[in-house]
Predict the 3D structure of the following.
Amino acid sequence: MNSRYEILAKEKGYFVDKQGNAYSPQGNKVGTRGKGPYLYFGIRVSKTKVIKVYIHRLQAYQKLGDLIFNDNIEVRHLNGNSFDNSFKNLAIGTPSENAMDKPESKRKKISLVASNKLKVYSDELVLEIQRMREAGMTYAELIKKYNIKSKSSLNYILKRKVSRNGVDG
C-alpha cells in the first residue's frame, strides 16, 4: 500500500505518541480495530469520503519519514504483535522480513491454511491441469477454465508432484 495518507494525517495534526496511542488534532485519543489485524482511525476528506489511516504506518512515518513509501517496503511489528504500535516496536523491511516477525506457530498456521485451500484439487485434477499446461495452455486460460484463484495457486498446482498412489510432495 502506498497511499500516503500518513502525510495528510500529520499535516492535519494527528500524531502517535511513543507508546503507540494515536491522537486527533484536538488531543483526543483515536483508533479502532476493524476486521483486519491493525488499528486505524478515519479522517473525513469530503462529505462522502473517509480515509483509513493505519496507526502503525503513521507512527513509522513520524519515525522514518518518506522511507515507508519505498517500493517493496512494509512497516514491521518487530515483536509480531500488530496492536503494539510503540515507537521501539516498529521498523521497515521487506515483505519477507515482515513475515518472519510473526511467531513461528503463527507462520505455520498461515501456511497450513493456505495449503489446505489448495488441497481442493484432487490428484486427478492436478494431473489434468499439468497436462493442459504442457500442451500449451496459458496461465490465464488455465485459471479461467479451472476457476483457480491466483497465479500463485496455479504455480503451486503445476509444481505439485503426484503419483499413481497420491501426492508425493
